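ok here's the first one, seq then struct tokens
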Amino acid sequence: MTELLDTPSSKVSLNFHAPVEYAAGGDVKIINELGGRLLTKRERKELHNLVLQLDREFGQKGWDTWTYLHEKIGVNEVGEMRLDHLKAAQALLQLMIEAKQAAFGTSLEEAWRQEYQSVCCDLLEQSEIEVNLRAELRHYQQAYSVLKCDHDRLQQVLAQHRVAAAQFEREKHSLGSGVTELQQRLSSEVQSHRHSEAELKRAANRAVGLEHQIDSLIAGRLVDSEALAQAQKKAEQAQRVVRRLRGSLICGGVLAVLATGAAVYKPLFQAELRAEQSKAVMLKRKDICLFDGEPFSWGTRINTPTGIQKCVKSRTGQYLWQFGK
């Protein structure tokens, strides 16, 4: 508790019963025993500045401060304050400022402590967040490595695909050229086939004519063969007659002549008969060439007035004579 003593000799004494930082307005007791002149305008301004400092720095309203100051000094308004009241009023206002500063310092320290704790909590949270972020960063780095490997592999696959596409285009162009060439060859072969069909038709017509000729020739040859067979039969009958007459002396010479003639002409007749039969068989074949009505097999060469001719087979399957060595 602080006591302010105001004596008639205009001396003011302040007795502090506690440290200044713990002093408050209610701890100050002013004993007004002073007189003297009224305060000047400058002195009032000094008090007003202290009151204004309390209002500006600590939010204490000026009206409340003046009311409290008047009550403690023992006046009703500032106009009643004397010169001897000035130092006591200044000391009281200064004590109030120091008390506010001490309270503000405590609250500020508490605020700083709370802020420090909050900052520590934030740092812990940020540390945890940093750890999580580092873990996520490692995870993302691993994912990036995997994605990079996949990207490189896809680039390789894309390059291979491009090479395959280029090769496919080349093969496609080559196949197109091959198809065009095949179409041209097919067209030429179709034309050749049509020409061959025409030749085959002509050859077939000629073969039909030749078959008719061969049939007529075979018919003529068969007549000759039958005549030879009849002659052979007659010769055999003559031989039988000769055998029957062999015992007769009268016909001995005749039999001898007939036997000699039969022995000489029989092989000739048989050879001619075999030749006619072979000719008839050859005339029935299709792989022969005819010259003057006589059949010749494939590959036979004959001398003609115009030169050597050879029996050959044409592309149409027809057998024809061809000049050659």
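and now the second one, same deal
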Amino acid sequence: MTVQPLVPAHVDLRDFPFMPLEVSRLRDSSIVDEITGDEFRAAILLWCASWHQVPAGSLPKEARQLSKFAGYGRVVAEWDKVSAGALYGWVECSDGRLYHPVIAEKAIEAWEKKQEFATRESQRKEQAAKAAGARWGKKDPAPETPPEGDDPSSGGKNARAMPEQCASMPGALPKGNRQGQGQGEGTAHRRGQPPAQGTDELGPWLRSLVGQEPVLVAQDIHVIERLLAEDSTRADVEAGIAAAMATKDFRPRRWQQLVGWIKGATKDRLEGVAKAGPRSVAKPPATPEQDRRNRLAKATAYFRGEWRQGWPDEFLPGHPACTTPPDVIAEARAVAERDLPDARSAA
């Protein structure tokens, strides 16, 4: 009688790395008592191989394939010695493959769980998509109408009450921002345009130059006021802060950090040197007397054997490019001969 395959042909568990094993069922089964150790080892390897066959739980019946799955490779003769015990419980079905009833049972259970999981996952994604559409597809609710008598642009009652509260606290608001004072003044101040001397806009102007309000002592600008009272001008302050802020990763946390930059700008202005480039002061030309002494010293060094590499050839006696006058060379030779009897005689 032909036996139908124990597992449907489409059952594929190759993505299942684990195979279930009932410990007590295997321990108490008759296979433990009826086969040898080598046969039992080969049987376990065949079970594992069948788990990733298609259909799962089956094996091909070719001896060469079974020998490989059982760990004997191409040595089919060795496989033949254990094949009877290793294939304990396997049956050949109508599709020409071998099936083990227990492995087939576990394969079908695993396949059904796989399908159940796929169905639940599909339903979950569908529900999530519907929930997202229901949530984000709705229009935003209409904005609430503010209570009558409150001006939304001014913040309502609290905004109207703020000037009255601050009026009793003179230090709460800076000058020019208190109710009834300074309206329309100072609001048009722009970055880099210093206000006139003597106004109360020094703080806002300084903060506009740094582009941020220093964190620690934002209101303490006395150090800048002292500089302005000495030699610095507002143009110096602007130039110094601009140079400081152009430095990479420099962010002042207090005004004291900018004092050195402002003093540098002040010094550059007083010296007439641009801050943008390195200072280069032209060396004044040597006087004729200084030039003669310099040439005499180098010529004397030559006759004494103390000539240094790097000195210009125009000072080297006897060189075609030498421009030292003959009388200076003669005097240098005389000085060298007086100090060193073996001084050079070549000119």
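notes on #2: The beta strands are 58-60, 91-92, 97-99. Residues 202-271 form one domain.
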